[in-house]
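Suppose a colleague, Dr. K., hands you the sequence of a protein chain of 1081 amino acids and asks what its three-dimensional shape might be. Before reaching for any lab equipment, you can write down a predicted structure in token form. Begin with the sequence itself:
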Amino acid sequence: MLCTKTLPLNHPFNYFNSYRTHQKYFSFPPKPKLSYISANHNNNLVLPKLKQTHDEDTKLQTPPTQSYYSSLIQDCITSNSFELGKSIHATILSDGFSPDTFLQTKILMLYARSGDLSDWCIARKLFDEMPVRNLTAWNTMILGYSKIDDYVEVLELFYRMQEEGNCPDKFTFPSVVKAYVKLEDFDGLRQVHCSVIKCGLNQNLVVGGSLVDGYVTFDSMDDAVISFDEIECKNVVSWNSVIRGLVRATRWEEAWETFNRMINLGESPDHFSFATAVRICGALRSLDRGKQVHAKLIVCGFEGDVFVGNSLIDMYAKCWDSESCSKVFDQMKEKDQVTWNSMISGLVQFSNFTKALKLFSKMQTLAFSIDRFNLGSAISACSGLADVKTGREFHGYLVKNFLDSDVIFGSALVDMYSKCGFLEKAHRAFERLAERNEVSWNSLISGYAQDGSLDAFEIYHEMKLAKDVSPDSFTFTNLLNLCSIHGSLDQGKQIHAHLIRTVGMNHLIVETELVHMYAKCGELNYADQIFNGMAERNSYSWNSLIEGYEQNDEPERALQIFRRMQVSGIKPDCFSLTSTISACRKLSNIKNGKELHGFVVRNNLESQGILRCVLVDMYATCGFMDCACRVYNQTSEKDVNIQNVMLSSFIGCGRVDDAKWVFDQMEERNTISWNSILTGFTNSESKDEAFKLFRRMQEEHIESDSSTLVTLFNFCANLPALAQGEQLHSHAIKKGLFVYNSVVVDSSLVDMYAKGGSIERARRIFDNMTDRNVISWNAMINGYAKHGMTAEVLKLYELMQTEGVYPNDSTFLSVLSACSHTGMIHEGLEVFISMLEDFKIVAKAEHYTCMVDLLGRVGLLDEAKEVIEKMPVEPEISTWGALLGACKLHQNIELGKLAADKLFEMDPQNPGHYVLLSNIYAVAGRWKEVEEVRNLMRSRGVVKEPGVSWIDINNETQTFHAGDKSHPKHKEIYDTLRSLLPRMKRLGYVPDAKFVLRNVEDGEDEGESLLQHSERLAIGSGLISLSKNSVIRVFKNLRICGDCHTASKFISKITGRKIIIRDTNRFHHFENGVCSCGDFW
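The predicted structure, expressed as tokens, is then:
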């Protein structure tokens, strides 16, 4: 490469070739005098040599030689006296001295190393015109071109020198290696490496070191290590190079081993070595190693080095040793910008946000600058403190300095506003960004996801369409967690497919979140499959799977996973123990539960409140209330959570008084506390106490939730308390308690009105529901079934499938029950077969019981018996009870006796079975057998459950027993019923003697005896107390008797009143002399 730069006219090169030329164009003295040189140059190395040779006034004392001038020029090069060297060069030219190759090379080196571009062009011209070039001349030019970054010319000279017979040496190869690296020619580097080996220079420190650096740049660490190992005499620079390369390749363990090898071989580390070693310890999160290096560098005197100190702060921060981190910072006498930035960042990492902000302020007072690193950390500190006020001040600073659109600062603002719950501001800050990276997108997605907002999915889809950015592991973990919260399985599967195509599955945090998501969504097979395919598992992975199986009612499997976790070496923590103890509760596995309790005690985990809660719950559920109370009483500081658990435990075992004592002792009560005690009163059927407690909740401004309302609505549904239920419904609407539009609450309302006898109101609520699940449909279908409205049941059963809701086993139970109560045998059989074949639902004993009832009611008693004999599950008490009831209906005494004997074995203390058999005998007039049944009951201590009926009059529930005369208006009630008898008889009513159920004495009026039945008395109370337009609603604890059923039809016709009687099986709607059951019940 020739230099075309125009040279100054007085430049020595212009008179280098021909003295005559210089004589012609310049008035240049024959030779520069020593006085001239001394006056213009001050060089203590060169001037003495000139004085030895020159006479100032007369002549040259000693004729100059090649070595003399070479020595002078070399001294000028050594002392960087390039202008002096040029003057000496001019003397050589003016004297007409002919330099040999050695001197020419020295002059070449003089111009090549001066650093002046004009001199470099002269050097190239000198080099090109040299008749003979030695190796030093070639190396000089190659090194020179390397310094001015002309790497193509470096390689061109390298190959020319070899073509001209010059063999590269240790000074040639480092520049050539650098050229290939800068030109990104890896193959060329490999080729020159081969040349180095051929020349036997691979063991040379400088050449080998350049190869190491080259391979490190190409991230070819295996080649770098090989090159390093071939160096015979290594120094700290070469050790640092290979360690730096291993660090760059994140081969941390190898880097650590190499550092230790350097120490063991006696090489003294420098500040760079120690700083790198400290960085390695931080990357490995190895605090012990980091402290060893720290001790060593103190001994070696590098503790005061700011570069080393900064590395120590970073290492201790990564190892979560806040105390040592602060100690290093406080002891540093010299701190630079990096020091402050590292410390502030570390404090943010340690969640010491307040101190981070204080340090940020102190840094400013010491005149250190605000940059993107420390300001970003300060904004993150605001995020951690949810300090939106300070965050806004930083935001204002960024706006004033036109930095709010910067991707680093802007992303920090998005994160800060998101974590503070200001999602709209976060979105606006996001929109302001000039460019968006993964951090900014993830901060926004994370904010919406942590808020539980499904808008996070929309932002994710926008991110997928954005340029130069794609979702990463952090994106996917946030979205998968959101899927877990909402149970969004389909969305979760789509995200799973996308992450496989992008980040892959080789991420512990992503795989663990997938396990958690699938477990939460009930897809345990997927969760298990991903878990078993994980190369590495942490405690969160195990806990997610254990929790998944426990919450999806597979407690035995949860215990198995827990045992596997212990075998794997992962120590159970609070979360895994909580799920496993809960699994023991579900299994009533007190043995394993006590073992886990022992583990909690041995590992000093009793202070964990959640563990105490699950232990109390486990012992209580397993029936060990003494143990539950012991754990509770040993808790010194009882918070609301453990008190709620104890409260629920007492309620669960029916100890309402003890529950009330715990409730009264509570200093703090939340909605759960109130709901629990409310449940206790409703379970004990303390209607007045339950509603009184609810009114107290309102007075104390305790916010009711869906559980409160569901508890009360269910309570009203199971009592003759429809009026109170209606009032509660109205109150909830007025107080705005339905703003959440809960499908659970609406479904409980449907159930309450249906069971309360107002099936029309139930249907209106059902039709107005914006969201209906299978529970909602089942509530309405079951309501129609209880009211004997089978046609409506079948319509809803078809409609729910049309709307995409699949019936479950409860649905089919209601549909089959409806068919059995109305004798629709063909429809019932068709539904049963569809359940088995179309929906693949395994029939339970309850479903077979419906089929026995269906066949028995239509008189197919042998077929009903055959179903019992062939059903794949063990017949239940209700199954034989259905057959016994059918035998009573069709007066099959022999089969009835068989069914009764089975029931006496399975449930000997239930009086209903004896009563049914006694009724069969009584209807047949076999009073002797009736007496035998009664004697059997007496001998077994079985007491017949008396018939009881209830009616709600003006929000007050009235109770009636057979023959009851305790009511204050009992005389008026009896008179009213007696007055109706003649009119009833004229219309065709005949008292049915078989329902007297005792041997009526001669002359005794059977009609008088029958009107004393509890349901008849309740109707009489309704007739005299309720307005003529009011529906008479009666509830009975047993089945309505046949005569009262007949009498109710006549009473409804005579009085023009609608009468609804709910017995243990169904509702009977009497109106204008007709019952809704069609007399098939």
